[in-house]
Write a structure and sequence with these properties.
single chain, about 375 residues, alpha/beta, Aspartate Aminotransferase, domain 1, Aspartate Aminotransferase, domain 2, seven-stranded mixed beta sheet, 14 helices, about 15% strand
Length: about 375
């Protein structure tokens, strides 16, 4: 009878209402009804991305969407700068390697975000760069990069700006057109409050010129096929039409609340969680923390797998651990989507109770009190 509260930064919690919307009788995707649904979905996605372009809906994960973007925009006869300081940005490096696409790596320590002046310095070293790839919110380290500033540098240098916005779009400030981002990508299972299954890509006119200038080594993820399908709102391949229906539902919720209000809520939860972390004598993992997910270093003497297992098994709070070399070093708490202050203070309480079980010394209730004070002060 225990309630499960997903605090992982993907998949995030899905509301019962959204689940019921997707539980409606299945219709065929080659119908006028689905075409109207896809058209409505695309318009709502433009709002979420803050763009006048028409985002593309792929059946797949955020990785599929990023692969589609990279293969379309990173030509085999030009050079790309890939900025990586976490597991997901390393994945985009690996795609360039797998497809033998020329690139320059720019690596920072885990937990650090990329700044505009750092990227600009790379252009001075490599003036022939034609594209830059980076993660706005590096989910694995909970670090934030300066998307607006980096996009400006790319424009000034005549290069395309490709942004992994998988844990930023729909939860923290992201303005594709105003910032001059050329490619933006997200997935359904993060801030958009759905199960995994949809990859979403928005492409600027400048980026389309590059995509059209060559044939990407892709078939299912060839974004030109998805753009052509918008002429009749008829997807090139079998779509996950129930998920598209669900996405219309959750995007309407976001639009009704207002993106600025969603951004403010995420920031409020993150700020209060950071106050709780400090009150418990814990440390943040990231030097440049992002608001969409908080990474907390595991204190000395605490068994990380046992800590998370007890939180889930005893209190129904499922948070994420570290990935790769960060395994055992951190836990991550989500602030995206269908989560609020009451959910989060409960997760802080579960952290306290399970830390106490392992003998970690702190003042019981200090974290929840600091969280509550921060929320009340807003």
């Amino acid at each position: 009878m225990q309630k499960l509260r997903l605090f992982t930064p993907g998949p995030t919690m899905v509301s019962p209402e959204a689940m019921l919307e997707m539980a409606q009788p299945l219709d065929h995707h080659r119908t006028s009804g689905f075409r109207e649904t896809l058209k409505e979905c695309t318009g709502l996605l433009s709002y979420a991305f803050q763009t006048e372009t028409q985002p593309l809906v792929l059946t797949g994960s955020g990785t599929a969407a990023m692969e589609a973007a990279i293969l379309g925009c990173c030509r085999p006869d030009t050079k790309t700068l890939v900025c990586h300081s976490g597991k997901f940005s390393e994945r985009w490096r690996d795609i360039l390697v797998r497809f033998n696409l020329p690139h320059v790596e720019y690596r920072l320590e885990y937990g650090q975000g990329f700044k505009a002046d750092q990227v600009d310095a790379k252009f001075k070293e490599h003036p022939d760069l034609k594209a830059v790839i980076f993660v706005h919110s590096e989910t694995s380290t909970c670090a934030l990069s300066d998307a607006e500033g980096i996009a400006r540098v790319c424009r000034d240098r005549g290069a395309l700006c490709l942004v992994d916005g998988i844990t930023s779009i729909g939860t923290i400030p992201f303005k594709m057109d105003a910032w001059g981002v050329d490619i933006a990508v997200t997935g359904s299972q993060k801030a958009l409050m759905l199960p995994p299954g949809l990859g979403l890509v928005a492409v600027s006119e400048r980026a389309w010129e590059v995509v059209d200038s060559h044939q990407a080594p892709a078939y299912y993820t060839d974004i030109k096929a998805y753009r052509k399908s918008l002429e009749k709102w008829d997807p090139p391949y079998t779509p996950n039409n129930q998920m598209v229906r669900g996405l219309v539902f959750t995007l309407k919720q976001i639009k009704e609340e207002g993106l600025e209000n969603v951004w403010a809520k995420t920031a409020r939860l993150a700020k209060a969680t950071r106050a709780a972390v400090a009150a418990l004598g814990l440390e943040l993992f990231a030097a440049d923390p992002v608001d969409s997910v908080t990474g907390i270093r595991v204190p000395a003497g605490v068994d990380e797998p046992r800590w998370r297992k007890t939180m889930r098994g005893k209190y129904g709070v499922h948070c994420a651990g570290g990935q790769g070399s960060m395994k055992g070093q951190m836990i991550r708490l989500n602030h995206m989507g269908y989560v609020d202050e009451v959910d989060t203070v409960g997760a802080i309480a579960a952290m306290e109770w399970t830390l106490a079980e392992q003998g970690y010394k702190f003042e019981m209730g200090a974290g929840t009190a600091a969280f509550g004070s921060a929320i009340a002060a807003e």
